[in-house]
Design brief:
Largest sheet: 4 strands, mixed
Distance between the termini: 9 Å
Helix content: 40-55%
Strand content: 5-15%
Shape: globular
Radius of gyration: 17 Å
Number of helices: 7
Oligomer: single chain
Strand order of the largest sheet: 2-1-3-4
Bound molecules: glutathione
C-alpha cells in the first residue's frame, strides 16, 4: 500500500489526498509536524533531502517527493492525466506555472498569516507577494472565463493542483470576489464526486 508523508495544513499534501480519494487508491497517511521541524530531521531527509512533505512512499520503499510529480504518477493511465501530447503538455504547463507563479505567492502568504513568526520580519516581502498572488488569480480568471476546466473537457490534475491553494486563498487575506470565473470553477471542483475537504484525515484502506 502507498504511504503518504503528509500534513493536514498543507495544500501540497492536499493535492495528493485529493487524487488518492478520487481514484479510490488505498493509502496510509503519516502526519508530519511540519510546524515544529518534523520534516527537517535526519530520518526524514532520507525520504526527501529537501526536508518537505508531501512524499509518496511506494510499496518497495521508493520515495517520490513534489506534489505535482506525485499527482502525475498517481494519475497516469486515468482521465486525470490526458494521453494526447498537447493536452498533457498543457496540464504540465499549469503544474509548472502553479509552482512558479501561484503557490509561492498564495500559499506563502496564507502560511505567513496563519503562522506568524516571531523571528522573521515578513512585512517587507508581503505586499509584493500579495500583488503577485492577485496577478495569478487574475490569470486564472481570464483563462477560466470561457472554460469549464483548465485543460480539455474534463477535470485533470491541473485543476487539483490549482484548487489546493486557491480555495484557501481568503485565509491569506485574498478576496476572491473580483474573480467570478475562479469562484465558479472552485464550486465545480468541490462538487466532483470523490472530492474531500482539505483537512479530511481519513485514509482509504
Ligand atoms: N514544491 C514542493 C513544496 C513542498 C512544501 O513546500 N512543503 C511544505 C508544506 S506545504 C513543507 O514541508 N514545509 C515544512 C518545511 O519546509 O520545513 C511540493 O509541491 O511538494
Amino acid at each position: 500500500m502507498y504511504r503518504l508523508h503528509d500534513a493536514l495544513v498543507s495544500g501540497n499534501g492536499y493535492k495528493c489526498r485529493m487524487i488518492l480519494h478520487h481514484l479510490r487508491i488505498p493509502f496510509e497517511r503519516i502526519e508530519v509536524d511540519i510546524l515544529r521541524g518534523g520534516s527537517r530531521t535526519e530520518p526524514f531527509s532520507r525520504l526527501n533531502p529537501e526536508g518537505r512533505i508531501p512524499v509518496l512512499e511506494l510499496e518497495d520503499g521508493t520515495t517520490l517527493p513534489e506534489s505535482n510529480a506525485i499527482l502525475c504518477y498517481l494519475a497516469e493511465g486515468t482521465p486525470w492525466l490526458p494521453t494526447d501530447r498537447l493536452e498533457r503538455a498543457q496540464v504540465l504547463r499549469w503544474l509548472f506555472w502553479e509552482q512558479y507563479s501561484h503557490e509561492p505567492n498564495l500559499a506563502t502568504v496564507r502560511h505567513w498569516v496563519l503562522h506568524p513568526s516571531p523571528d522573521e520580519d515578513r512585512s517587507r516581502p508581503l505586499p509584493r507577494k500579495r500583488e503577485l498572488g492577485a496577478r495569478a488569480l487574475a490569470i486564472m480568471d481570464r483563462h477560466l472565463a470561457r472554460r469549464v476546466w483548465f485543460v480539455g473537457d474534463g477535470p485533470t490534475v491541473a485543476d487539483l493542483a490549482l484548487y489546493a491553494y486557491t480555495h484557501v486563498a481568503p485565509e491569506g487575506g485574498f478576496d476572491l470576489a473580483p474573480y467570478p470565473a475562479v469562484r465558479a470553477w472552485l464550486a465545480r471542483v468541490a462538487a466532483l464526486s470523490g472530492h474531500v475537504p482539505i483537512e479530511f484525515a481519513d485514509e482509504q484502506t
